[in-house]
C-alpha cells in the first residue's frame, strides 16, 4: 500500500491512501491573507476544486494562512471539517458558511478517516497551534505545520523513530526586524539551535521544508528582510545533521508516493497550476535600507472618502476608547508618562500626525509642544484594512521608530488596539463578503 502526499501551497497538503483523500490546511488562493503571494507562483483551477470531494479537511489552527473562509467556500458542505481551536467563534463561522459537520480536534485523540489516522499533537504554543501525526499504509508522517516543537511532545514522538517523513517549518521569519528596523540584528541567518537535536531524535527518512511558500508584493522590501532562510541553507544544514536522510522539496502541485521501501514521484495535483520558474529561492539582505513609509504608502490605491473618514475617526476617538478599555502589563514602557506619535500616510505619501499623552491605561490627544519618544507609522490603506478587513500585522507595513531597546514592540498602542481581543477578524470579514456575494 502507498501513501501519496501532495503539496497545495504553504502548509497545505493532500494525503491519499487506499481511496481516502484528506486535505490539511488547504489554501486555494493566490494571493492569500491579503498580500501573501505564492512563491513559487501558482494558479488554481477553481472548477476542479469545486468538484473535489475530500473525505475530510484538517485545520491545525486559526491563523488566516491556514484557515480561510474563501478557500473553504469552494468545498462541498458535507465535507467533515476537523479544527484545532480553543475559540468557539471560529467553529460557528465555519458552520455559518454552511458546513454541517464541524468537529473539534483534541490533543492525542486519534481520528480515523478511512485508511488514514490523524492524531493531533501538542505544539509549544498549545493555545494556538497543533501538529499532525499521520498514520497510513504502515507509515508515520509528522506534519509540524508552522509550530515549535514542545519538549514533552518530542519525548512522546521519539518511540516512533525513525519517522518515515517529517514536514518541517523551515522559514523562521524576522517580524520584529521589519516592524522595528532599528532592532534588526543583521548578520548571517542561522537555523534555530533546537532543531538539530529535535530532528536527530525523530531520525526521519525524508524531510520536507514546509510551511513557507509565499512572499509579499513584488515591490516589497520585506522580500529581502523578512525571510532569512533559503531552501539551499536548509537542505545543507539538515543534510549535515541527518546524513542518512533525504531533504525533499515539494513545490505546489508536486506529489510523491511514500512506501516503506522509498519515495517515488507521483502524478501532480491537477488543480494546482504552476506558473513560471518553480525552483526559486529566498534572497535575504541583512544590510537592506528600509524605504520610507511615505514611499510604501504610494503603492496602495486611494481610499474612498467614507473609508478615509473611518480610519481618521479611529485615530481621533476609537483608538482612545479601545486603549482605555485594555489593561496594560505592569512592566510596560507606557507605564511611564510619554508622548506617542502616530503618522498615517495617504496614497500620495502625505502624513497626518496624531500625538497622544500616554500614561498606563490612560491616553489623550496632545498638541505639538512636546517631542514624541515613541513613533508609529502606517499607510492609511493598511490602517483601514486592519480595522475593517482583518489585516494581519506582518502585512500592514507598520513601522515603529524610537522605541527603547528594552521596550516590548507589541506594547505599541496601535498594535494593542488593533490586535488585542481581535480573534477571527480576518475570517469574519471573509464570511461577510461571501454572504454579500451570495445574497
Account of the protein in words:
This protein starts with a strand and ends with a helix. The chain is built from 12 helices and 24 strands. The radius of gyration is 23 Å and the shape is globular. The longest helix is centred in the C-terminal third of the chain and has 21 residues, at 305-325. The model has no long low-confidence stretch (mean pLDDT 96). The chain has 439 residues and is an alpha/beta fold. Strands 8-7-6-3-2-1-17-18 form an 8-stranded mixed β-sheet, with helices on one face. The chain has a 7-stranded mixed β-sheet with strand order 9-10-11-12-13-14-16. The chain has a 5-stranded mixed β-sheet with strand order 22-21-20-23-24. Helix 9 packs across helix 10 (380-388). The chain has 2 domains: 3-274, Ribonuclease Z/Hydroxyacylglutathione hydrolase-like (Metallo-beta-lactamase, Chain A); 293-438, Nonspecific Lipid-transfer Protein, Chain A (2-Layer Sandwich), CATH 3.30.1050.
